[in-house]
Amino acid sequence: MLTQHYQRLNRLILILFILLTTACSSIISSTAGNMAANLSYTILNSDDPQTVAEGAPAYLLLMDSFLIDSDNNIALLQSAATLYGAYASIFVTDDAQRSIKMSNKALSYAEQALCLDNKKVCHLRDMNFTEFSLLTDNINKNNSHSWYILGSSWAGWIKANSASMSAVAQLPKVTLIMSRILAVDENYQEGQVHLYLGVLKTLLPPALGGKPEIARQHFEQAIAISHNKNLMAKVLYAEKYCRLVFNQDLHDQLLNEVLQADPYSENLTLMNVLAQAHAQKLLDSSPEYF
Length: 290
Prior knowledge:
By secondary structure, the chain is mainly alpha-helical.
């Protein structure tokens, strides 16, 4: 028997299919925007990752279809970028080529959305770092969301293309975006920017220029700003920082706290359920790693 979440997803697919075949394009555009927002909320608050993994691809295709006639809809482009990026990062872990394709699409949608908002930023990846830095000086509270979507999509794209040195070489641009957003609003997205910066600062060991202690500060800020509700922050703190500096005591403490926590929290439930599953794997491998 299908779960309630899966039944809800299929009902929405049917409704949207009817809209696609009968409604005028302006109505479709409006409905698509509302649908994207509602879908994101439903996914983020689901406690069943398998259902999300099985149901989400249908929605990704639907969003693609909406964008054929609404490719100037910034909100829809951003929602598509977010969903494609999240799906590629979380659920496409055993197919490198598929992950690359989906992260490419996520970044493309994010770039289109930012370009519609400001024509001066339409070719960011082709700019040298100095030109890019001057543009990011203009990040403010009014446009930080568009930049955040780009930065998070770009980070996912780099992760998917990590075998390419040219892709990895773009990390400083992503770091700069997140740093600029942080300067505008430290609490943006309940500490998610701190979380991104924490991970970015641990990509290299200290001997090669990594900054683990700065990363530690970012992880702790992400946890504090979310009031301990973002369990993935603790998991990444343990995995990226503690394993880098070989601090088993803190590693195991953080993971045990995650496993003992209540995963249900608005807009964090799905990630918290996934965090607990990953925490258990990390804890099981702790004696062997350390």
